[in-house]
Design brief:
Layout: E1 5-7, H1 12-18, E2 25-27, H2 33-38, E3 46-49, E4 59-61, E5 65-69, H3 74-79, H4 81-86, H5 88-95, H6 100-103, H7 108-114, H8 121-127, E6 131-134, E7 138-140, H9 141-144, E8 145-147, E9 150-151, E10 159-165, E11 169-176, E12 183-192, E13 195-201, E14 208-209, H10 211-219, H11 223-226, H12 244-261
Parallel strand pairs: 1-3, 2-3
Antiparallel strand pairs: 4-5, 5-10, 6-7, 6-10, 8-9, 11-12, 12-13, 13-14
């Protein structure tokens, strides 16, 4: 490691000021930032730790929307009876993230802001048509994810919460990499008031929707509806864990399972 300063603000306003116009790095749970610093892939001189900001923590629910504070941990989401009654697929997804150590430290805001191509939450955010609330504005999920580790967030902007519309039904299924538990492919499906949504993580450089499957499910919500629909392998991730062709195949398989789980 190397020398750097750490500031621990207690309000969002203080945190934004501490960012110094984007010159500092934000730390939520630290599972992404600290390893990259250790490997010298990132070398911020100043780190803003959000862990002491109470207003970024907690869960609020209504009949139509579930809002989760950015510093709420994966374990808290997974254990929430209020979320489970409204969006059981979301608590199920949170319970599949990493291991207990990761779930008890990692946060939804950190995961969404980092936009790891194999993270679970981006699929739920995109699949449910969530709204990302920040220190500046509200961002629609379809406008948020821009590419590999890239989002619409500005350098001096902090996620404060994520609001999920309550769907008619939803399901999530993933094929995890055995060691890391990241998704080789994960698919989140939802039947919403505005139609079906199908979002994929792990397969491409960032989470993406499969519009052909959405159109088919809008006509007939059943696992067999998507069982014969394939995504092209061009542009999908390929690495030592899975080829692009295999990931394309998994998208169809996981989508079928997610639709079945939504029942």
């Amino acid at each position: 490691m190397y020398n750097f300063s750490v500031e621990r603000p207690t309000t969002v306003a203080q945190a934004v000021d501490a960012l110094d116009g984007g010159e500092a790095s934000v730390m939520a749970g630290g599972h992404s930032l600290l390893p990259t610093m250790k490997l010298r892939l990132a070398d911020p001189e100043h780190v803003v730790d959000l862990s002491n900001i109470a207003e970024l923590k907690g869960i609020s629910v209504s009949a139509d929307v579930v809002t989760i504070g950015a510093m709420t941990t994966h374990a808290e989401v997974a254990a929430s009876d209020e979320i489970h009654r409204r969006i059981p697929a979301l608590t199920g997804l949170a319970g599949l993230i990493g291991d207990p150590a990761v779930r008890n430290r990692g946060t939804i805001g950190g995961s969404v802001a980092n936009a790891d191509p194999a993270a679970d939450y981006p699929a739920a955010v995109l699949g449910l048509g969530a709204t990302i609330n920040t220190s500046k504005r509200q961002l629609a999920s379809d406008d948020f994810f821009r590419g590999l580790f890239e989002t619409a967030l500005e350098d001096d902007e902090i996620i404060t919460s994520v609001s999920f519309p309550v769907p008619v039904r939803a399901g999530y299924s993933k094929f995890p990499q055995p060691a890391s538990r990241y998704a080789l492919v994960g698919v989140f499906v939802a039947q919403t008031a505005d139609g079906a949504r199908v979002a994929v993580t792990g397969a491409g450089p960032s989470a993406f929707r499969v519009f052909e499957m959405e159109k088919a499910l809008a006509s007939n919500w059943a696992p067999e509806t998507v069982s014969e629909l394939a995504v092209p392998e061009f542009g999908l991730n390929a690495d030592i864990h899975a080829s692009a062709k295999y990931r394309a195949h998994l998208v169809t398989v996981m989508a079928e399972r997610a639709v079945a789980a939504a029942y």
